[in-house]
Amino acid sequence: MSQLTPQVRRTRITLADGRDLFYFDDTPEYVSGQKSRRSDDPRPLADRYAPVPDGQGNLHEMTGPTMRMDVLTGEWIPHAAHRMNRTFLPPADANPLAPAKPGAAYSDGEIPDTDYDVVVFENRFPSLMRVPGVEDVDTTIDGEDLWHQRPAAGRCEVICFSPDATKSLREVSVTRMRTIVEAWANRTEELSALPGIEQVFCFENRGEEIGVTLHHPHGQIYAYPYVTPRTAQMLRQAGAHRQETGRNLLADVLAAELRSGRRIVFETEHWVAYVPFAARWPMEIHLAPRRDVPDLPALTADERDDLALAYLRMLEIVDRFFPTQEDGSLTKTPYIAAWHQAPVGQGREDGRLHLQLFSILRAPGKLKYLAGSESGMGAWISDTTPERIADRLREVAAQVGGESVAHTNGVAGGAGTQEEAGA
């Protein structure tokens, strides 16, 4: 057992097809080792790297997803045709993210145990995957020097926030949110150390409007073998700013927002939530640490504790942004919550950790469509102003007050992770 931190136990097991799964437990009897999670996976799954048959039944070596360089933009575009067969809006009794049913025959779910706190596992239908024996080299296609292709040799993981498919992340306890923060940090640290990985991205998609195909509360963690276009663009701006001023651009942005105060939504001891000066989306909020931090693993225990509280408050505010439903219940605002972390290598000094949460909903039942200007030219046109967004968010934040996380069990102060090897 290796000691990472004291309040969360991580147990690693191997699924039937060879993928990794990690249990992150904060329940006392599992933290203490009094109880252990199920470690066997009896599903009759073929090894994920086994040869695959073609249309004529002939076996071919598994090659995995590839990515091609768009010579017009300099962006890598992964191509993962096998994802066409991934699970799409399954019935409630066939949820692959739910825990196994006690006493029932094992179904094709991904979690072997009948319960869990937080679980992370390798995606069964990844868009990025390193295949053993496939060399990560740049090749040209059709003899054309313009057309470059490489294996999409990254990694895609799924993180399940709760065993309850009817819940959302907003409804978990602070203790559970703290465990999620620990899982994000742990996976970022380990994925960043893998060969060829240049950037790690933790994110959550919520709502069918966003494109979610599984409604169970979950997120994803991508380890890219390249720096993503959005990050590369920010690094170019940050590099120019550092050359001109000697300072970190994102740190200066936060300082400017604090000086203005006009778009600040709320503040905590370690975190600031604000609407960015040039917000693009109908509802957008950024959450940034006060201290210059490159990524989630670099956060202190106190910063992680405070983040658990701040994150849940932010989600409560987001779900109150639009009017409540006729029965008085909160609207589940569709959103994407995206953690921007510094890249692993080049440009790391110009990166700074922050969360960007945004919604494509501009009014109940009305979406912000990316039409000709946005989709064709990448030229954004906003339907509102950042100040109007901030005013509404602050109005809701005042209503929520300190009660936004009153449904919690308290913060696991100084939380962290113990390691338990699976059988």
TrEMBL record:
Residues 30-60, 404-423 are annotated as: Disordered. CDD domains: GalT (cd00608). Residues 65-227 form the Galactose-1-phosphate uridyl transferase N-terminal domain. It catalyses: alpha-D-galactose 1-phosphate + UDP-alpha-D-glucose = alpha-D-glucose 1-phosphate + UDP-alpha-D-galactose. Its cofactor is Zn(2+). This is Galactose-1-phosphate uridylyltransferase. InterPro entries: GalP_UDPtransf1, GalP_UDPtransf1_His-AS, GalP_Utransf_C, GalP_Utransf_N, HIT-like_sf.
